[in-house]
Amino acid sequence: MSFSPHKDYAGAKLGMWLFLFTELILFGGLFLLYAAYLSRYPHEFAAGGREMHLVFGTANTVILLTSSLLAAMAVTAIQRDARGRTMLLLGGTILCAAVFMLNKYVEWSAEIGNGIYPNSSRLAAGPVGESIFFSLYYLTVGLHGLHVLIGGTLLAVVAVRVKSGAIHGGEYVLLENSALYWHLVDLIWIFIFPLYYLIL
Amino acid sequence: MSFADQSRTATSSFWNDTGRTGVASWIFSTDHKRIGLLYFYSVFGFFLVGVVLGLLLRLELMAPGRTIMGPQTYNALFTVHGVVMVFLFIIPGFQGSFGNLVMPIQIGARDVAFPRLNLLSWWLYIIGAVIVLTSLFTGGGPPDTGWTFYVPFSARTGTNVSLAVFGVFIIGFASILTGVNFITTIHRLRAEGMSWGRLPLFVWSLYATSWVQILATPILAITLTLVIAERLLGTGLFDPGRGGDPLMYQHLFWIYSHPAVYVMILPAMGVISDIIPVFSRKPIFGYKLIAFSSIAIAAVGSLVWGHHMFTSGMSETAILVFSFLTFIVAIPSAIKVFNWVSTLYKGSISLEAPMLFALTFILLFSIGGLAGLILGAAATDIHVHDTHFVVGHFHYVIFGGSGFAFFAAMHYWLPKFYGRRYAEKPAIVAWGIMFVGFNILYFSMKILGLKGMPRRYYDYLPEFATLNLISTIGSWILAVGLVLMLVNLFRGLFRGEPFVGNPWGGATLEWSITTPPPTENFAEEPVVTHGPYDFRGAGVP
Hints:
The structure holds two protein chains of two kinds. Chain A contains seven helices and no strands. Chain A is elongated and about 60 Å long. Chain B has one domain: Cytochrome c oxidase-like, subunit I domain (Cytochrome C Oxidase, Chain A, Up-down Bundle), CATH 1.20.210.10. Chain B has a two-stranded antiparallel ribbon. The interface between A and B is large, with 39 and 40 residues.
């Protein structure tokens, strides 16, 4: 074909932002349920919140915030065409994602070991509000974890393309959009953390 | 822009000008016109499946008691009819087919903003559709919950709900990607001179629809995920025995599914807004208000979901608020109808097939819309809730409205992409038969509902027998008209008279390029100098 593919960075970013809206609303459904059931079972939610492992939650918050910083620095690095540093920073971001998931694994193992998981006999014996709390917790955090995996994979693909030279100082919209996605993953956690670990 | 010299026939077009014509060149094409036709044939194929299921349903209801099938089959049939028609036909229908075919050309673009994403949308749609179809023949058999998948039944039934719901989830993803694609396209790829005030109203309606898709579909995605979690993990979020609340499911479901009916009807209104001025030889009346009312319907329509739940046990305050908001939606809808009628006033009306279908839209949509007010008022809704009145209302709006607009679009735009046209007389005869059959079929349902016949019931009292028989006969008449229309249309598209130039006399950009359009759409970057309904400016008589 004779025409050259048009490159519209502003358009690509607009599309990404629109997609991020849809992600927010996806989680919005779960936050809506949280609000409705919190107003119905405030005491049970508070009791559930006290069972959470604050250390893991805090550590993961710090890890995700750091990873977001690294992702933002990777964008700055590629703008200066420093591809080596970009890959290093992306590697740091992906490492943070891996540590986050590892943490999550240890935390969930401990909770499941304690008999706290959807439909468990321990929760079935307790007040219904607590079982609702933990069902929501597993669904929300599970969905978020899935997004961490997707975001990490995306950043890995980007890192490979930086290495191959397909992404460079003159063309880095994929990197920028992936970093945006990563900030979204971070942002959603910033809401999950206080709702489940802190305020109750 | 020249609309005058369009008598030339295209020697090559998007059908052959890239030199690639095999199946792979279609199903992996990123050309918006090819994807549009892929979508058209997929959604229309599912429409025909839905029609057959609907005919079988009417056949069962022709007489009280068992007619042709058992109750479980009946439950599965109305569920699958709903799922196929709603999720596989009318929600992706306009955007996927005519949106893809026409919108980029109407704004003077070479393609959509993300052509590969566009292809991915179609593939996701097909994968989702295959999963839904698989659910019919595997596991515990076809789902029997109704297309609304209401808990607690959907969480407990032994039928294959999880797989069907997962298929719908995938289709929702396709819908979101199309929405993202179209909004970006309309923002970024308008040709020089194609200001927002010169956008064809079809494009405006697609723009409003895309926003609804983006903002509402994720809620469907999470709701369906929760149903699957309820079934597989036993989360209990909607199980009253374990602290959950089925009402929360209904809220979440309708937060998506009410706006979804605007995904079905808004593009249809856009089609009508494009067709009416062309066949009235008059610029559209109230361009700005029609464009604005699309946005208003999308915005207010997102806040009225509760009117599906007046009998579900919401608070009275909630019922009042949702009832009030529902009445507000009637205002922008009426603005559109009045503007179309004002466009007709003193116009030079030519009653060709697309126009007849468009006029039918106005009539049937108005009847269905006014019935919607009866349902929107809490006091009357209590009496007709979950009766055949609702079925009649919904089909008047979505089949009489969107469906007939889809037929209008088929007669108006498909010849442009085939370079051949259907025969006029059989098209008009088919329209007449369908119009008669449609009203017999669905008006009987409205009366039945007022008399108290519930919907989704397998059996009914003897006093409902006569009207049910009449309704079923109407379905046969409608089917005859439909077959005649299809035979005539597709025979014409492949073997009919040549269709070249600008025979309808449209002033939007798709009529300024050769027929069928070349892959590149425009030989040179178009510069737009007139509005979409400025026939004098476009130089068409």
